[in-house]
Design a protein that fits this description.
Helix 1 links the parallel strand 1 and strand 2. This protein is an alpha/beta fold. The chain has a single domain, classed as TIM Barrel, CATH 3.20.20.
Length: 298
């Protein structure tokens, strides 16, 4: 399905140790995480909160295991803080990723975000940007795109539950109002299906903007409970709404077929934040790797 070296396969450390909920996987070490990634058959990783920030130390540890850095999350606050606040943090983040050999920077706008609030219902109180905030977001993303281009890198925008860019309409407006040369899209199956969007529609509509892919599955019964019982995003994570490809309700075969036909090149990143005490991260990494091999040939 995919040509040799067309796509590289990574897995995020969030299944081992959770950035938003440090108590999940708090005992897992950085070395355990990347060793089990490699043992499960992955050649890439995004950056977690336990990863050394000293690039020399990080490179050595990763190279010993045949792992490269695909990218890392960056929280922007373009709608809620002065641009200069985001700019300084972004440049530091950009330079770190550039040194690690990554060519895309994951950006998600966290102004007014509720994703980190344990008691706020993720559907009932989802933020909606005002016209002024939309303008700040678009202008700010263009400026971040220019900063990324200084290092021959691209920003990939991460639509995300509990933020101002979550739904089909919000993604459409973002794509319509941003310059394709400056702002690309991160395509995340799990966040789209959890939100109730048509993930294949988004994929096919914005294929030419997609430069990074997160492969995440959903447990439908948990997602329905989140709506019915007005759970927060973090409670949904602890409750097991996310899982790895092949363990939930999403059929990834048409996703892989569409990406293959379009000639997508870049990273696929398995990402499924779960409680590692309930879902052993190494076991689930193996499960994901096996499913991807069976459905995509990778």
């Amino acid at each position: 399905m995919f040509m040799d070296k067309q796509v590289k396969l990574a897995i995020a450390p969030i299944g081992w140790t959770n950035d938003d909920l440090p108590e999940l996987g708090g005992e897992a070490t950085f070395e355990q995480c990347i060793s089990e990634m490699a043992l499960a058959g992955f050649t890439g990783s995004e950056v977690g909160n336990k990863y050394p920030r000293d690039t020399g130390i990080l490179k050595k540890a990763l190279e010993l295991r045949g792992i490269s850095i695909a990218s890392a999350w960056f929280s922007s606050f373009l709608t809620s803080k002065p641009f200069e606040d985001t700019k300084a943090a972004f440049i530091e983040h950009r330079d770190f990723l550039h040194e690690m050999g990554a060519d895309v920077i994951v950006v998600s706008e966290q102004g007014n975000s509720i994703q980190g609030q344990m008691e706020t219902p993720v559907f009932d109180q989802k933020p909606v940007f005002t016209e002024e905030e939309w303008q700040l977001l678009v202008d700010g993303l263009h400026r971040l795109g220019d900063l990324a281009a200084e290092k021959d890198m691209k920003i990939v925008y991460h639509h995300h539950m509990g933020t101002g860019i979550q739904t089909t309409d919000e993604i459409a407006r973002l794509m319509d109002e941003t310059d394709a040369d400056k702002v690309s899209l991160l395509y995340d199956t799990g966040h789209l299906v959890f939100s109730g969007e048509d993930h294949l529609h988004i994929l096919k509509t914005y294929m030419d903007r997609i430069r990074h892919v997160h492969l995440k599955d959903i447990r439908a019964e948990v997602a329905q409970k989140v709506r019915d019982e007005k759970w927060s995003f973090l409670r949904a994570v602890k409750g097991g709404v996310f899982t790895v490809p092949g363990d939930g309700v999403i059929d990834f075969k048409p996703v892989f077929e569409a990406l293959s036909e379009a000639g997508y090149t870049g990273w696929f990143v398995v990402e499924a934040e779960q409680d590692p005490a309930l879902a052993n991260p190494f076991e689930y990494a193996l499960k994901a790797r096996r499913y991807i091999r069976e459905t995509s040939g990778l």
